[in-house]
Amino acid sequence: xxxxxxxxxxxxxxxxxxxxxxxxxxxxxxxxxxxxxxxxxxxxxxxxxxxxxxxxxxxxxxxxxxxxxxxxxxxxxxxxxxxxxxxxxxxxxxxxxxxxxxxxxxxxxxxxxxxxxxxxxxxxxxxxxxxxxxxxxxxxxxxxxxxxxxxxxxxxxxxxxxxxxxxxxxxxxxxxxxxxxxxxxxxxxxxxxxxxxxxxxxxxxxxxxxxxxxxxxxxxxxxxxxxxxxxxxxxxxxxxxxxxxxxxxxxxxxxxxxxxxxxxxxxxxxxxxxxxxxxxxxxxxxxxxxxxxxxxxxxxxxxxxxxxxxx
Length: 311
Prior knowledge:
By secondary structure, the protein is α+β, with helices and mostly antiparallel strands. The chain has helices spanning 4-14, 19-31, 44-48, 71-79, 105-110, 122-125, 137-161, 168-182, 191-196, 200-213, 231-262, 266-278, 286-290, 296-310; strands at residues 38-42, 54-61, 83-91, 94-104, 130-134, 218-221, 224-227.
């Protein structure tokens, strides 16, 4: 019997991507202290092809110590992955910007499983992604398996948290709404509709394929799915999710605090965001770029001055 899930994921991972993004990924792989296993491209720029947007790139390494020579950065990554950096790269006259997250494959796998209290990996990588750079065929297979686990985990939670019966989209909308709440992400009500738009068949097929892998029996009547789950199992899942939610919020607050110390290039990212949203350019001394926390008062003064001028 064909493995529809694997077929869909391989096609998505290997779909041709903009040459500039591929070149950016190749550049990132070349500046790492140790060659990573692969680099995955995901997020809003992938969905909407916004040439002026911020790319979301995940660098997956063999070890969580192989991405940096800085001891503090490695300790921070071991404590609460991933580490996130802001990077720029020019390709044929085009300036690309990216948030680059780095974590090991073991860290990725741990957070892709149902037992994880951290939703940040499986909730993102159950969505369409591209493998824009990979070390070798073995690494590609390992990353494929990790992505597949994300889909299986997401689909199982969709069954446990979703309606007793409904169309495939109902399960995914319910799931994503739960993950947004758990991660303290303020998203518009229709955000999950944006994620599914144009991919409805993909999500429906993956839902059934994942449920089959998890031995979840399902009745299908027309476009309506009804996973056969006992009320006791659903109640147990709700209790488990309540714990995910309790843990998820402080986890993401901790990530924000960690980013204040480890988000290399963060000041440049902030300046770019201001320029994009206001059309105005805030200039700060090189010292502020190198030491954003120490230079924060200068930055806030500059931003306040800009606001006064605009008013």
